[in-house]
């Protein structure tokens, strides 16, 4: 038998080397293909878990917020589990509200966190630069308004300018002697200039620059923004800060921070002090500001406004009168914060002659006036942001310049004491 010679060792090693190189190259190629796929799978899994974590955090924060807004008891921390993801919400008391922080984490430690701030309070919506009840409004001399005007009574002037819509509501709606830079709505329009459209039943002695709509339906009357019940709640908050009973009248003539507080007699602010209001003030008597004080809402109020209330339940025909002479008025620093003077004097509503609030001389700034049952008189070189009353009277060069922030006016307390969302963001 013939024997075959063995394959040389060097050739065998070359074959083995070639196989190993092939295997190594194949592994490299396979690794190059598989690694991105694995990374993609991990990325997708992480993204899914991240979304699960986020939604769990949102759900927990919404659940706690709803419980707080409904007045239910909530312990801190509060844990909610959704789809195997645990979300824990921590509640911390802050000024005028609650600070909430929620952290949600999956089993593989994918974490998302969301925070929110809830504030206690209520709001009042002032959609008009000037608003009056059935007592109506009278503009004299060069007084003017930059903003829409609404009245449940007559609106009368002598060519005075109103920079917006003018509405005198109801079947007795009447406008006379007004120049409206926008449209005008009233049952009867007389001696007026309307830069846009006019809606009416009767018109005479007037100029309409765009379109007239005779036979238009009368506009519906509107209630004023602040109710007596809300005022009473503010008074309760003021009283919770303590009562000042003497000396009477209570005089502030130096820099002072005050509020919430009830003052059981007249209040006089005299000289040039800076008075900072940190909460509602209830004055059971008259309020007088003279000389040139600086009035500020405390920075701690944030978006909230500071209110000074004159209300004497035992005599709201001859008391609860506000006489504001000069002064500069500033909010807390937030654009939505104002100083609000509110009188519960009812003389005008009862047919009397007492003026609830008089603003005169050179008062100006972040200032609002409100007398839902009384008359407000504004005269001389004054400027304010909004005025609402049963009856309004503007004289001399008085100016009302409406700011859009007034439409969502916030206060630090309300009838329900409910929470509203101040901020909500991922952290």
Automatic annotation (TrEMBL):
Keywords attached to this entry: Membrane, Transmembrane, Transmembrane helix
Keyword Transmembrane: yes
Regions crossing the membrane: 12-34
The UniProt record lists the keyword Transmembrane helix: yes
Protein name per UniProt: Type 4 fimbrial biogenesis protein PilX N-terminal domain-containing protein
């Amino acid at each position: 038998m013939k024997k075959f010679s063995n394959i040389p060792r060097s050739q065998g090693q070359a074959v083995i080397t070639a196989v190993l190189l092939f295997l190594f190259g194949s592994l490299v190629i396979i690794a190059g293909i598989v690694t991105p796929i694995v990374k993609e799978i991990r990325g997708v899994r992480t993204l899914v878990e991240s979304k699960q974590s986020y939604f769990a955090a949102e759900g927990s924060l919404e659940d706690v917020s709803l419980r707080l807004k409904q007045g239910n008891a909530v312990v801190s921390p509060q844990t909610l589990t959704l789809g195997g993801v645990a979300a824990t919400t921590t509640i911390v008391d802050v000024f005028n509200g609650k600070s909430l922080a929620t952290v949600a984490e999956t089993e593989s430690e994918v974490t998302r966190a969301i925070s929110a701030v809830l504030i206690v309070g209520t709001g009042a919506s002032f959609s008009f630069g000037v608003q009056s009840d059935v007592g109506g409004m009278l503009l004299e001399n060069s007084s003017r308004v930059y903003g829409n005007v609404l009245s449940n009574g007559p609106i009368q002037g002598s060519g005075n300018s109103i920079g917006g819509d003018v509405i005198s509501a109801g079947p007795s709606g009447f406008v006379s002697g007004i120049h409206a830079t926008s449209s005008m709505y009233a049952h009867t329009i007389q001696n007026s200039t309307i830069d846009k459209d006019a809606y009416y039943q009767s018109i005479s002695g007037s100029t309409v620059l765009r379109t007239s709509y005779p036979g238009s339906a009368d506009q519906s009357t509107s209630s004023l923004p602040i109710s007596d019940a809300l005022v009473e709640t503010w008074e309760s908050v003021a009283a919770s800060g303590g009562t000042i009973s003497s000396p009477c009248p209570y005089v502030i003539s130096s820099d002072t921070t005050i509020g919430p507080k009830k003052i059981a007699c007249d209040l006089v602010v005299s000289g040039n002090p800076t008075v900072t209001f940190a909460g509602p003030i209830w004055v059971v008597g008259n309020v007088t500001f003279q000389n040139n004080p600086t009035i500020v809402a405390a920075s701690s109020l944030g978006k909230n406004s500071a209110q000074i209330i004159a209300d004497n339940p035992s005599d709201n025909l001859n008391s609860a009168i506000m006489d504001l002479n000069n002064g500069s008025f500033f909010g807390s620093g937030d654009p939505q914060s104002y100083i609000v003077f509110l009188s519960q004097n009812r003389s005008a509503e009862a047919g009397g002659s007492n003026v609830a609030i008089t603003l005169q001389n050179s008062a100006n700034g972040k200032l609002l006036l409100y007398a839902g049952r009384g008359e407000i008189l504004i005269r001389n070189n004054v400027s304010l942001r909004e005025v609402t009353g049963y009856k309004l009277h503007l004289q001399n060069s008085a100016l009302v310049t409406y700011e859009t922030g007034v439409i969502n006016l916030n206060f630090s307390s309300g009838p329900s004491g409910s929470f509203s969302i101040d901020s909500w963001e991922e952290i």
